[in-house]
Structures are given as structure tokens and as C-alpha cells.
Amino acid sequence: MNDNDPIVLAMQVKEIVQALELKVYSGEEGLDREVSGAYVSDLLSDVMGHADTGQLWITLQTHKNVMAIASLKDLAAVILVAGHKPAENTVEQSNEEGIPILGTLLSNFEISGRLYELIKNR
Questions:
Q1: pTM
Q2: Domains of the chain and any CATH numbers
């Protein structure tokens, strides 16, 4: 394994929701999606260029374009941080795409650390 190999979590979104006590805003039909890793960024073009299929996207962005990128990259779910809530049209798009939008009161740093610990201890 080298630094460019994706992390294989062998976890479903719903397991991460439970373990990290995340709120599910929408896209419940996608909770069985397999998670291959995570990507943290608030810049849509960065996510579009670097996130990989099956990853969780950790961000504070809440607008509809988030779902366009999540769908394009076939991401497992989007985690909104710091208590941010998705816009209504973002929720609608999430439900149409079957890509969950999750939420936490934690910061990018805190949720990323907890996710890392969860992965490391599996």
C-alpha cells in the first residue's frame, strides 16, 4: 500500500452515523452506501478535482451545488460541520440522488479526528 491508495473502511454510512452520533438530514436511502474514505474541503472545485468515489465529504457548504458535486463524484455522503444545516433545495436534491446529508456540531478538525480514530481502531 502506498500513500495514493484509497483507505478501505469496510463500513457503511449508517455505521458511521451511529458511531459518531451524526444527524441525518436527508438521503436516508443511501445510508447503506459503502464508505471508502473521506475528503475535507470547502472549495467545490477542490472536491471535484480530488475526492474519490465512495468517500465522505466533510464541509460547511450547504447550497445545492454541494449535491451536484457529490453526485458527480459518487460520494457516499456529505457531513456538514459546526451546526450548519442544508438549504431546502439541497435536501430535495439529496433525497433524489440518494446521497445522505449528515450533520454535526463539531468542527472540521474535530469530526475528521474522530473519523480517523474510528477507522484506525477498526
A1: 0.92
A2: 11-120 (3.40.1390.20)
